């Protein structure tokens, strides 16, 4: 069973796929306190975005859904590798539906959404984020967004991620795939959900919690005013991007739950405009996907989704967590 913070990916290339996507979205939204009006808005959003994939993306595309907490809501990401939108500003005007989808147009999708973002590149594709989240989001010291999807064909996800109230962020990769990896990832998340003030101590808590499980690798970063403190065990990728220049943060060798030793803590400045990327090993060339795709300044969840689309390296569970300084552009 997929955890609530995992995106549900639905490939959409024809009308039958869209019917499956709408039913999946409706089932997800039914368990979230959105009210009838919020659920109706979400259905219209999914229907329009999915119809656009059927009509305009030659190879179809992907819709990804997940529930949101604090405040409650639901998120839809729409990804394709189509021709792109030549003039996004025009496409977002009210009434600019052309032969798009249900005739609502992207302008209507934006109005139906409580949160909306679009990124399109000619000959690379289009990515759209739409949220139905009626209560306002709380201001934070940094913006965070993640996309986590299971390996194709798997009913469980062996990756994990979380961001705690005190500014600790982590990405976890349970060894292998399927239920044993998922159990390890969930145990690691639970071990640090209460918050830690030291990333090495957070990894130590995971190490103890994972004894007797499949084991996992993980990276944790504590983001405080002006400073990042980072520690990692295993092959979780970590890249700090400052002024467009990536710096890779290094992790210690080992497996949490087995042979991991206390990881050294790296300290780096955390300044306006900085972005930290954490990702599991199902993705490669993540820094290049971020800088080359000109993703700086995007909603972090949309940036994570584009990285997932453009930087997948092998068949695996995949997770990207994007953390952007709140004073960034």
From TrEMBL:
Pfam families attached to this UniProt entry: HATPase_c_2, SpoIIE
Top-rank taxon, per record: Bacteria
Protein name from the UniProt record: SpoIIE family protein phosphatase
InterPro entries in the record: HATPase_C_sf, HATPase_dom, PPM-type-like_dom_sf, PPM-type_phosphatase-like_dom, Ptase_RsbX
Record-annotated PPM-type phosphatase domain positions: 142-325
Provenance organism: Rhodovastum atsumiense
